[in-house]
Amino acid sequence: MDSEADLLEVRGVRKVYVNLTALGGVDLSVARNSFHGLIGPNGSGKTTLLKCIAGAEMASDGSITFQNRNITDATPAERSRAGMSLKFQITSVLPNLSVYDNVLLALQAQDAMLALLFSRSRARLDERVMQMLSQFRLDARADDLAAELSHGQQQWLEIAMALAREPKLLLLDEPTAGMSPQERRATGDLLAPIKERCSLLIVEHDLDFIKDICDTLTVLDQGLVVDSGPTRTVQNSDKVKEAYLTHV
Fold this sequence. Notes:
By secondary structure, the protein is α/β, with parallel strands linked by helices.
């Protein structure tokens, strides 16, 4: 992969917790306007790697470069401002607010405090809020409380919120966990259009889902990269089947 085209470059990243090595030196590249899947058995280090990239955890060693900027020691807020957005598996929507207001607050996070104090942003952002809700099939639920949505719809709402700042890279940690097969298929359809403006790094256990939407796969096992490359090549790799796919 041409490094000049890469949006994200992870080089030799290690994460050590006292006597536990969660990541043993991981290399990963995410190209611009691409969907990159991260798979592996439980405990392989997938979520730890995602946290190190987002700044929720600091790498013990190695480097992380985003948009040609070294962000290895950057705070989560600095990474967010640089164009990175993270959604963990557990939803963090505000259940007692409306679906509309959840997205509105995510958009308002970009506004100056003075604008918020004088409520200048609500009317200005209305069209954008409704566009986001429509994109994720939630426009008919705009006035409902977020708590009233199904599990799958809450996941879609949080993805919409994560995209509110128009990030260059969206990090998703098992977004289809707990979804029905129909919701998983719909999630793939809903994510597809964002590739035009945003790359995706996604951790998933549903191999059928991830191979259908991802251009590239990286397979982790015991904190190390087993294989990485085009999805079709990796999913048919003998060493990947031996190390992971046959044990799923």
